[in-house]
Amino acid sequence: MIEKALTGSRGYWGWLFALAAVVCVGLAAYLRQFFEGLTVTGLSRDVIWGFYIAQFTFLVGVAASAVMVVMPYYLHDYKTFGRITILGEFLAVPAVLMCMLFIFVDMGQPIRVLNVILHPTPNSVMFWDMIVLTGYLLLNIVIGWTTLDCERNAVPPPKWVKPLIVLSIPWAVSIHTVTAFLYSGLPGRHFWLTAIMAPRFLASAFASGPALLILLCMIVRRVSRFDPGKDAMQKLATIVVYAMLINIFFVFMEIFTAFYSAIPSHIHSLEYLFFGLRDETGTLHAELVPWMWSAAALGFAGIAILLTKKLRVSEGWLALACVMIFAATWIDKGLGLIVGGLIVTPLEAVAEYVPSLTELLITLGVYGIGFLVLSLLYKIAISVKEKAAD
Predict the structure, then answer these.
(1) Alpha-carbon distances of 361 from 24, 73, 326, 357, rounded to whole Å
(2) What is the dihedral of CA 29, 34, 40, 45, to 10 degrees?
(3) Using CA atoms, how far apart are residues 201 and 217, in angstroms rounded to an integer?
(4) pLDDT score recorded for residue 387
């Protein structure tokens, strides 16, 4: 089936070459970081995780969200998701790949990646994060490729695939749960020291991932003869809105607990994110305040659209709502939750962090790799789907 990715229109090849150019820009930036070290980034002794790890955390959720189409279709025989299940599985593959690449670039020297394998430490959450991410990547590749090949040959999938599908469902939950444990297991960072970190991660994942999948389905329908189905996108929209409501409920739980208990170490990060925080000299630090209020506005606006049936059934409004919710969750988890938890140090000082141009270019390059892999996988899947429909 690989040959299907090697044929296409001029627009298809133009898109691939554009992504390849983006990857080259990111690679050039990474070579600078490789030779000069992480000093070219905005990271510091206090802010040891920045834009790279923020993207890693967010994309783990995008990868885990594939379970929201896999579980209804395979376990409950929900036929509506039959057309988009492979799109969800193939979305998880580049998402996990980008997660691994962001860890890779964050470590500075590539040889350090081998230390996780050559010198495993089972008492480290990072070790288990590597295990679950690698396993989930392999599961989605094997399941997606096997089921698609069987569809191409008009034969039922082999019996050994069903246990892997069942296994992939709790495994999807595990990848974001273990990622949450990376943060909630650090007692020195009070902003992350909460028992609902994993549920909050999963709720935001089940909002952002399906929202992105809806947008991808719309693009697929416009650039090919394959129609993922309006009913499937509407059902995904229902999942998005309820997951987003649960995510916001968890955020309010954190805000209430922090401010009602009046424990300074729990309050300071929230104050920094939403109102700004003054240091010992009286200087106000409020760089992320506009971002966080924008995320709040986008989130509530997206929910309002999806809860309004007349707007939700309109493809234009649905696309707008998905963009809003995806952007809101990216800002909340990709900027506020991770970076905000580090900027206010355990000594209650403010260590400002701004990603450097090198970080942004490397991040752009990693996303370029992800979208390049996604485009190739979707080209194969769509070609098979179109041929099956003929």
Answers:
(1) 10, 38, 21, 6
(2) 140
(3) 24
(4) 73
Tokens of 28: 């050039």
Single-letter amino acid code for the residue at 148:
L
Whole-number pLDDT of residue 295: 93
In contact, 51 and 353? CB cutoff 8 Å = no
The reported pLDDT for the residue numbered 214 is 92
What is the pLDDT, as a whole number, of residue 390? 57
Full-prediction pTM beyond 0.85? yes
CATH 3.40.50.2300 fits 2-389, yes or no: no
Per-residue model confidence (pLDDT) at position 389: 59
How far the first Cα of the chain sits from its last, in Å, is 17
User: CA 146 to CA 116: how far, in whole Å?
Assistant: 30
| C-beta of residue 57 within 8 angstroms of C-beta of residue 172 | no
Q: Based on C-alpha coordinates, what's the Rg of the chain?
A: 21
Task: Pull the structure tokens for residue 301.
Answer: 């606006």
Q: How many residues does the chain have?
A: 390
Contact call for residues 359 and 51 (beta carbons, < 8 A): yes
Asked if the model's pLDDT at residue 49 lies above 70, the reply is yes
Q: Which residues contact 101 (CB under 8 A, 6 or more apart)?
A: 366, 369, 370
Amino acid 187 reads P
Q: Is the pLDDT of residue 388 over 90?
A: no
Q: Where are the domains of the chain?
A: 2-389
* More confident site: 101 or 278: 101
